[in-house]
Amino acid sequence: MRLPLAGAVAGLALLLALAPILVLAQHDAPVATLRVERADDAGACLDEESLRELVAARLGRDPFVDEAPLSITVRIERARRGYVARVDTASEGGEPGRRELTSERDDCRDLGDALALALSLTVDPASLLRPPPRPEANPEAIADAGVVEAPDAGPPIADAGVDAAPPVAPDAGPPPDAANAQDEGDGPALLLTATLLASYGIAPGVSAGLVLGAGVHVDAFSVALELRGELPTVESSVRGAPYVASVVPCGHLDIVGLCGIVSAGVFWGEGVDVPSARSGFAPYVALGARALVAVPLGAELALRLHGELTVPVVGATLQLGGTRAWETPAVGLALGVGVGARLR
Hints:
Blueprint: H1 2-25, E1 33-38, H2 48-59, E2 70-78, E3 83-91, E4 97-103, H3 109-123, H4 139-145, H5 176-184, E5 189-200, E6 206-218, E7 221-230, E8 233-235, E9 238-253, E10 256-271, E11 279-296, E12 301-314, E13 317-320, E14 323-327, E15 332-343
Parallel strand pairs: 1-2
Antiparallel strand pairs: 2-3, 3-4, 5-6, 5-15, 6-7, 7-9, 8-9, 9-10, 10-11, 11-12, 12-15, 13-14
């Protein structure tokens, strides 16, 4: 009976999580108004036109119009290190909102990318469900490319009696974009996470715990080692809790991630309010999957929300007087909220 119940709970949780996105996806081309203000000392940072172009590149269209129910105001100022952008939103019949983004770079590139992502999700949350638009070739530009004729070199110089040396092209170095990419370093970043967890089907009843993780994040992929401990919970006169280590590889697309989970550890249990109660440990091994959303809080920090399903390969069984009192269910559910940091 536990498996159908766990499956029903999992399906309901998934439906509730996707319902807001699916509803928003039914509306075509959501729009907003945009106003960008720059302080006097932030004139080198991006202006309204540049920000509109970044958002349009993400969404495949320009979502900003002169009049719309949603209005967005971005105020960019110089910080002690880099820049800070305050994003204020207001909508008809809704509460005003404010979000702050920071960057320690002097060229505003990180801040521009973070603003473009934040504004894209604010205007059109359903864009998460669509692949990024492909850049289209401009036929006119291709037609105009043609062959460039060399300028008139004047009379030939063969009569000078000296063989002309071939011109030597100066070493121009890498293009600016490549140089900037090298400076930024798209290499590995140290990933640190801390998550508060609520779970069902991992320990007796509903349990709460803490997960600490450390790993490596490279481009769109990451792998982390997580240590998980939960508070012991009581059900059917038994008390228990798992203590496990997990390897979690993930693939990421913008703020969304999908992960696999391989967990191994021990399960501790004991009898409660029964004669001759004993305690002990049993091995615990499980496989699972996780859906993750990481909302940027700055250049390095992110708010992490995730839901996961686990299936025990080696589960625990707690007995009282030779009778089975509790065993690990066939499916476990967990919801987590925490913070993560990517450090280079």
